[in-house]
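Database export, one record per block. Field names are fixed; values are copied verbatim from the stored entry.
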Amino acid sequence: MSLHTGPAAKTFKMDESYPAINRIYQERGWTDGLPIVPPTDEAVAAMLRYTDRQPRDVIAVLPPRQGEATMERLAINAVMAGCRPEFFPVVVTAIEALADPAFNLDSVQATTHPVAPLMIVNGPIARELEINSGYNAFGQGFAPNLTIGRAVRLILMNVGGGLPGTGDRSTQGSPAKIAYCVAENEEANPWEPLQVELGYPRETSTVTVFGCEGPHNIQDHYSYTGLGILKVVAGAMGQAGSNNLLSGGAPVLTLGPEHAATIARDGFSKKEVKDFIFEHARFPLGRLHHEFRKFLVEGRKNPDCDDTMVPIVKSPDDLTIIVAGGAGKHSCWQPTFGDQTRPAHRVIRRRDDTPLRRVADITG
């Protein structure tokens, strides 16, 4: 069969068995450690039918290798990840967002921090593709979430050169580095969904990326008021050891639908939730040793005052709140890489910048 390589988009012939193909891809460092779907000419062509761009169009240059992310290379890695062709527009949009200078992909790829790109998909396309936003949203069992997230990771490895131990120097890593993609549960969101907060109509589909750690669970089965839940949430987020405590940044609070409903029922708007977290998600400086204190950002707090409560964000607007998950009194938060990365978003669109209403329309 005729196969494509991951990083170079070159074609070669191979008449080997499926296990042999996977062994060769593993030996050459073209995979994430999991078996791949062989990127045959036919499979790559089927993927490319879900874009109106040309195979050699470059949509981004990805560090640290400064590899050119052509549509063909993106398609090859999407096939390898097991993506269905209709998922491809989301993969392309995610790569465009990651290439935004504000995201600072160069540092995210190379740091010792266990940061991974979290992709949040909003709008009709998220529902059309059945990207999971409910039970186990950050977990296993849902092909769109896992294969879109994995495709992005393979692209960051094969095109960008973020290979463990060389381009990627993460001390311990995280399972989020394999795949980290979710849709917002807009139906269960009592406030405006993320794309509306960003200034787009509800019917516009977007991908928003964050440089995050994996989810940190927040359980509260006992509070029955919004204020009670928010105090637990703030207590969980005001922790030592996060990059956000050190330098601020843009963490994500992912409220479960039950927690969100109770908070909204008691009259809290999304803005008021952000204000509350800003004021209460703090850590007492007196519990930190002077060795750590001296590295806190000058001017934001007094390193010599034990009574100072250190915030995890510089402004309420630095916090992003989404709703995801199923029933159950759990939420989570995702600390970020700190002030060295900012969230970025892109509309899922055609080549002429027209928003794509449905993925099915791209092949019409």
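Remark 1: The chain has two domains: 1-213+349-364, 216-335.
Remark 2: The longest helix spans residues 143-158.
End of record.
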